Amino acid sequence: ILLNTLTNWGFEVIECKDGDEAWAQLQLPDAPKLIILDRIMPKMHGSEVCRLIRKNDDPQNPAYIILLTGQTKKEEIISGFEAGANDYITKPYDELELQARIDAGIKVLNLQEELTETITQLIYENKERMKAVAEKEKMAKTLGVVEMAGAAAHELNQPLQSILLLSEYLATVI
Asked: What is the pTM of this model?
């Protein structure tokens, strides 16, 4: 039922028969970023798959995980969030609620992507500014050396002028 619902909504669905297969699919480079996991699956439960995802997730681009379960106990729901789920929906699910939760997940993923792009741009701009500041500091040091050389030349020029004038006077007297 879930597969048909998601397909009818236009989503590309990767259906897995158990937790091991789900984990294997999520190891692939083109693994989906929006994941709906059944909490109770053969071989490996959805909560364990969720923990593995979080343990190996890209912190810059984490997956959005919705756990689907027939259990409604608060402890089970809390356990799902502690495993790393972003959201939780109980069976039998309401299609409108499921759509709203998927839409929320897509918004979060899009915002994460925008944030990552913005951070990358800010890091680049910061590096460029740091280069510009370093260049200005280098130029300021060079200017300081030139000013110091000018001051030193002025200081040397005064006694040399006196010596020159004295030598010209002596040349006229002798």
From this structure: 0.70
Residues 6+ apart with CB under 8 A from 69: 38, 39, 40, 46, 76, 80, 88, 89, 90, 91
- Per residue in 88-134, pLDDT (tens digit) is 998 888 899 999 999 999 999 999 999 989 988 998 898 888 888 88
Long-range interactions of 148-153: CB distance < 8 A, separation 24+: none
Which of 89, 116, 79 is CA-nearest to residue 35? 89
* Residue 69, strand partner residues: 90
Type of residue found at 76: E
Closest CA to 56 of 41, 35, 40: 35
Measured torsion, CA atoms of residues 65, 70, 76, 82, in degrees rounded to the nearest 10: 0
Give yes or no for a contact between 9 and 32, defined as CB atoms under 8 angstroms apart. Answer: no
For residue 43, the Cα-to-chain-centroid distance in whole angstroms is 34
Q: Strands 87-90 and 34-38: what pairing? A: unpaired
Which two three-digit tokens encode residue 91? 């069976």
Exposed e or buried b for every residue in 47-63, given b needs 16+ CB within 10 A?
bbbbbbbeeeeeeeebb
